[in-house]
Amino acid sequence: SCPSPPDSSWDAAYERELQTFEDIGDAGEIWFGEESMVRIIRWLEKQKIPLDSSVLDIGTGNGVLLIELAKSGYIDLTGIDYSPSAIQLAEKVREKEGMSNIKFKVEDFLAPSAELSGFEICIDKGTFDAISLNPDNAVGKRKQYARSLSSVLKPEGFFLITSCNWTKEELLNEFREGFEILEELPTPKFCFGGRIGNSVTALVFQRK
């Protein structure tokens, strides 16, 4: 399932998940499902990305992707989310899993703090989608997202984006300034009215 537009209901959703986690130890739903996490981790492993590379998860939600990366051996992991409830939830999940080397911060990616810089890998699963759906100046917010990405990602750094709102062509257009595409990652196909399409697009960009 894909994330819904960002508004105060995000916080409400994470507050519910926080309560559920406190009650039963369940981290809640993983948007985009397990396979998108597996796809990201496989790509990093296939590229032999060093385990000490600095990784930023943009819109980390419950932090489960970073937990999986930590289990795969990655040691320099940061997750940001503009929902304080999401970060609280992620911290509780991190404690339960005993993964003390993951940093979580409340941050608005469209106005990142100065210390958010120098990352070698940035990962986005659905946050760009959510920003794009914002009814308030979506075009400006998408441009600001690309600017923020350029400021936090090192030159030559990799940006892995998973989207269910944008096609490959549209994403190439959104990130044409300052980024080049390295590859498209395989995603599940669906058939609708006799036409085959992808419900999810996953691309890897490299910062120029």
UniProtKB/TrEMBL annotation:
UniProt keyword annotation of Methyltransferase present: yes
InterPro entries: Efm4/METTL10, Methyltranfer_dom, SAM-dependent_MTases_sf
Listed GO biological process terms: methylation
Domain Methyltransferase: 53-183
Keywords: Cytoplasm, Methyltransferase, Nucleus, S-adenosyl-L-methionine, Transferase
GO CC annotation terms, alphabetical: cytoplasm
Position of the signal peptide: none
UniProt GO molecular function: protein-lysine N-methyltransferase activity
Keyword S-adenosyl-L-methionine attributed: yes
Pfam families named in the record: Methyltransf_31
Catalysed conversion reaction: L-lysyl-[protein] + 3 S-adenosyl-L-methionine = N(6),N(6),N(6)-trimethyl-L-lysyl-[protein] + 3 S-adenosyl-L-homocysteine + 3 H(+)
Species: Cepphus grylle
CDD domains for the chain: AdoMet_MTases
PANTHER family named in the record: EEF1A LYSINE METHYLTRANSFERASE 2, PROTEIN-LYSINE N-METHYLTRANSFERASE METTL10
Highest taxon of the lineage: Eukaryota
The protein, known as: EFMT2 methyltransferase
